[in-house]
Design a protein that fits this description.
The protein contains no helices and eleven strands. It has 115 residues and is mainly beta. Strand 4 and strand 5 form a beta hairpin. It is globular. The model has no long low-confidence stretch (mean pLDDT 95).
Amino acid sequence: VQLVESGGGLVHSGGSLRLSCAASGFTFSSYHLSWYRQAPGKERELVAEITSAGTGALYGDARKGRFTISRDNAKNTVYLQMNSLKPEDTAVYFCYAKGAGGGYWGQGTQVTVSS
């Protein structure tokens, strides 16, 4: 099982990033996919989650209309579009898959937002 995040980097406040998480080794279309983030000294928090078919999503408090989660089951990939980024969005962003086979984490991708 592998979950590989990409798309992180350094961006100025107000900018945008699109994170991707490419999955392999399990039946991607049967799993709920989530994005979490963890800032230094803070607990890991849910950013967004999407159902296996992509028909429903929920968002954590950080979203406030700025983030959108989506998935492409044909490409075994989940995305997180982040707009109007703020310095407080700086964190390592992790992809998480949850299903009948258990839960799997990616290694994370760093997002840094400068003021």
